[in-house]
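pasting for ref
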Amino acid sequence: MAALEEKMDNAGLKNLLTVAEFARLAGVSPQAIHQALRQQRIRAVRKGPIYLIEESELSRFFQ
């Protein structure tokens, strides 16, 4: 697992969160995050069925 974290950090991906992680940090439901994604209130990258959101998007979410 440490090797994966090191690869993610080297690729600049360490601060990416799943929808569930982002929702937990924001104190809202994952559904609220999916709605914000659909409304383009926050940005994410999609890897297959998984959205990855930069932790810095938290400030955009609360605007």
